[in-house]
Amino acid sequence: MEDVARPLDALNAARNKNVIVDLKNGSAYIGKLKAFDIHINMVLEEAEEHKNGEVKRKLGTVFIRGDTILTISPA
Amino acid sequence: MEDVARPLDALNAARNKNVIVDLKNGSAYIGKLKAFDIHINMVLEEAEEHKNGEVKRKLGTVFIRGDTILTISPA
Amino acid sequence: MEDVARPLDALNAARNKNVIVDLKNGSAYIGKLKAFDIHINMVLEEAEEHKNGEVKRKLGTVFIRGDTILTISPA
Amino acid sequence: MEDVARPLDALNAARNKNVIVDLKNGSAYIGKLKAFDIHINMVLEEAEEHKNGEVKRKLGTVFIRGDTILTISPA
Amino acid sequence: MEDVARPLDALNAARNKNVIVDLKNGSAYIGKLKAFDIHINMVLEEAEEHKNGEVKRKLGTVFIRGDTILTISPA
Amino acid sequence: MEDVARPLDALNAARNKNVIVDLKNGSAYIGKLKAFDIHINMVLEEAEEHKNGEVKRKLGTVFIRGDTILTISPA
Amino acid sequence: MEDVARPLDALNAARNKNVIVDLKNGSAYIGKLKAFDIHINMVLEEAEEHKNGEVKRKLGTVFIRGDTILTISPA
Predict the structure, then answer these.
(1) A66: nearest Cα among E33, F59, G39
(2) Average pLDDT, chain C
(3) What pLDDT digit, counting tens, does each position of B39-73 carry?
């Protein structure tokens, strides 16, 4: 994620890179960012669900509903 | 779910395939994805409700309201 | 609920049939689906409220606000 | 509440009749339905608030904000 | 609050009269209704905050955000 | 906050005056009201965060997101 | 954050400065404000997550979804 004028520019710069998506329920998804929209709905590939610092599930592709998301940062 | 430009493309690619729909309340629905809309309202067929890793109910067809959904991934 | 292109088609196919409406608060309403709209507001007839697997109330007609709904499935 | 094509038709048919309005917080309001709008904001007259099956307050007229409502049924 | 066709008519009829505004968090505000809008944002004058049946604070004028409101009734 | 026809008029009358902003999470911010918008997003200056009646933090300028606000009253 | 007519002016004045972003879940993010939009979605750089007054994680760049934000103030 590089120099950005609008928040979605940061997500655009992170396409095809690994990101950590923290959810409101305390779980995190780590994977390659493939797609997002203005609702911050996202698709990650080669994704893993983490809970309390441990891998809980390997998911392959995952669609994440935007309203459950807290933060997105580089993995 | 294949290469996608927008998040809903991933759902479109999953039509007629088995998906796991995780809800905000901790339950999961597994079934064949038949339909979805921009609110992420979904219809699954041959669906089962899972809770704590066990099948809780066999539902046949189920309509799931989009705002209850956390994630969608391939089954 | 038959073959559907959009989620609301499934609800349309269920008109005048018995459905189970599961709410976010853990209760369920079982009755004949008479009407619904795009907010998933619904009207059931000959409806019963169920809680923990038991009939709690017989309601006759009931209007259910859409934003309280988790899932809808055939009874 | 009679034969209805849309959910709000059921509310319209209930005007000037006694209804039970169940709220998300577990309380219920019973009174004569005088007005409602598309947000399901409602006005009841000769209304009583019930909690755990007992009358908690007599309110006369009460305006109920729609987003707090779970279900509406005939009293 | 008199005979009303729409819910906001009831609020309009209550202008400059004392009302009880019950909030989702269990507190209540009692004061003279001076203004409201379609979001049910309200301004009360000579207002008091009540909690568990006791006056907790005297507030003078208070602006109440509509989405925190449960019900409004005559004081 | 003086005589008002619409709720936002009350906020406008409070510009550059000290206000108490009560949040849904139980904390309160006290400071000089500098700006607000239709979402009730606000900016206070010389602001303090209060919790359980005690000053928790001195913040200088603070932006408060509107959807976290319960009430606004004169300090 | 300087003299402002609208709340977003305060955020604009804070661009490229360090801010504290307090979230509804009790955690705080401290970093340099790079971008924001009308939903108060934000991007911080050189960001740290704080919980109970201690640094929990160093994040580099972080995208924060606006609807999780409580307040924003200068660091």
Answers:
(1) G39
(2) 93
(3) 999 999 999 999 988 999 999 999 999 999 999 99
Q: Would residue E1 count as lying in a domain?
A: no
Q: Which of D4, D66, D73 sits opposite C60 (nearest CB)?
A: D73
| CA B64/CA C73 separation, integer angstroms | 9
Residue C30, classified by CB atoms within 10 Å of its CB into exposed (0-12), middle (13-18) or buried (19+), is: middle
Q: Which domain holds residue E13?
A: 7-74
Residue identified by tokens 């994680």 is G57
Whether residue C28 contacts residue C71, with contact meaning beta carbons closer than 8 Å, is answered with no
The conformational region for residue D5 under phi > 0 = left, psi -120 to 50 = alpha, else beta, is alpha
pLDDT in tens, F1-57: 445 689 999 999 999 999 999 999 999 999 999 999 999 999 999 999 999 889 999
Q: How many CB atoms lie under 10 A from the CB of residue D23?
A: 18
- Identify the CATH number of the domain in which residue C63 sits: 2.30.30.100
pLDDT confidence of C3, banded at 50, 70, 90? Answer: low
Which of G29, G37, G68 is opposite residue A24, by nearest beta carbon? G68
Contact B5 A35 (CB under 8 A): yes
Residue B39: inside a domain: yes
CB G33 within 8 A of CB G42: yes
B→C interface, C-beta within 8 Å: 23, 25, 29, 34-37, 41-43, 47, 59-65, 67-68
Closest CB to D61: pick one of E24, E40, E73: E73
Q: What φ, ψ does residue E38 adopt, rounded to 5°?
A: -65, -20
Contact E61 F10 (CB under 8 A): yes
Q: What is the pLDDT of residue E4?
A: 66
Q: Where are the beta strands (DSSP E) in chain D?
A: 18-23, 28-36, 42-51, 54-64, 69-74
Mean pLDDT estimate for chain A: 93
Q: Is residue A35 part of a domain?
A: yes
pLDDT band at E72 (very low <50, low <70, confident <90, very high): very high
Instruction: Give the total number of structural domains in chain E.
Output: 1
Assess if residue F13 is contained within a domain: yes
For residue A1, pLDDT over 90 is answered with: no
pTM for the whole structure: 0.93
- C38 beta partners: none
Q: How far apart are CA G53 and CA F48, in angstroms?
A: 18
Task: State the Cα–Cα distance between residues G57 and A22, nearest whole angstrom.
Answer: 12
Q: What pLDDT score was predicted for residue B4?
A: 66
Are the beta carbons of G44 and G34 closer than 8 angstroms?
yes
User: Contact F63/G1 with Cβ under 8 angstroms?
Assistant: yes
- Alpha-carbon distance of E30 to E45, in angstroms, equals 9
